[in-house]
């Protein structure tokens, strides 16, 4: 009789829906991320779905965090940042997501499982990977503040940018998993914000004087200086033509016109470069290579006409194609 009762009870459990899995209250949300899943494909499928639910929570919360963080970036730049961080923010420690045996209940093939992730344990693992790029960010930020020239400042700022690109996905994961930004993450974000503010102050105060340099004293030289001022201005820099300067930086263009005769007639070119120098004087800080603009003029008639066509082709639009990339390593453009 007793065996029959046991069999009857077992049959009743198999026939009905699974009981609620365990007591998730033993895993409070301030200490654990928790996800429940149900499957009619057996216990393994339910456990896998529950683990995937925890991972999906992490991804969704990272997305929400990024929306807030990048709101000030706006437009395409904000979208690029969110895509970059998302692509590198996949939680890579699935082994830390556990399904406690008491949080699984099955009725035949139909099972309910609850997966949990210990927030403190997961953050400790992520903190180990976080340390290396965080160290690079802090060292670069300190070096940038001590740099004697804006070119040196920019070099360290770029190092900090690269470190932040590696750090930000880990920072987002740690904030989501810990429930709030850990102290070191908050401090690094504040340091990054201070760097950006410092960059903006320096850019606002920076003045560029485009000097005559060694450009030819003709229409080509005039066009090159005007185009260089225009391209620098479009890049977000305060630039103007000048014969001399007392503060800021001097942009000293150089280039010698070369002419030859090809199958289409005379051809003249200006391989344009420019030195960046402190005002009112001092050794060059860097050289801008603008030869990629390919400034040329071709005429079926005379060399003088080829020179005139060269001058006409030297425009701010043309130089704007190469100036940002040339300037980015040495001046702190965003």
Outline the structure in words.
- It is a single chain.
- The chain is an alpha+beta fold and 334 residues long.
- It folds into 3 domains: 16-118, no CATH class; 121-205, no CATH class; 208-327, Rossmann fold (3-Layer(aba) Sandwich), CATH 3.40.50.
- It contains 10 helices and 12 strands.
- The protein has helices spanning 2-15, 43-69, 75-87, 119-146, 150-178, 183-205, 219-234, 303-313, 316-320, 323-327, and strands spanning 32-39, 97-98, 104-107, 110-118, 208-210, 239-241, 249-254, 258-262, 265-270, 273-278, 286-289, 295-298.
- The longest helix has 29 residues, at 150-178.
- The chain is elongated, with a radius of gyration of 32 Å.
- Mean pLDDT is 87; it is low at 1-17.
Number of helices: 10
Q: What is the SS-derived class? A: alpha+beta
Estimate percent helicity. 40-55%
The biggest beta sheet, please?
5 strands, mixed
Biggest sheet strand order reads 6-5-7-10-11
Radius of gyration from CA coordinates:
32 Å
Whole-number tally of structural domains: 3
Number of strands: 12
Provide a brief overview of the structure.
The chain is of the alpha+beta class. It is built from ten helices and twelve strands.
What's the arrangement of secondary structure elements?
Blueprint (H helix, E strand, L loop, with lengths): L1 H14 L16 E8 L3 H27 L5 H13 L9 E2 L5 E4 L2 E9 H28 L3 H29 L4 H23 L2 E3 L8 H16 L4 E3 L7 E6 L3 E5 L2 E6 L2 E6 L7 E4 L5 E4 L4 H11 L2 H5 L2 H5 L7
Parallel strand pairs: 5-6, 5-7
Antiparallel strand pairs: 1-4, 2-4, 3-4, 7-10, 8-9, 9-12, 10-11
Helix pairs in contact: 2-5, 4-5, 4-6, 5-6, 7-8
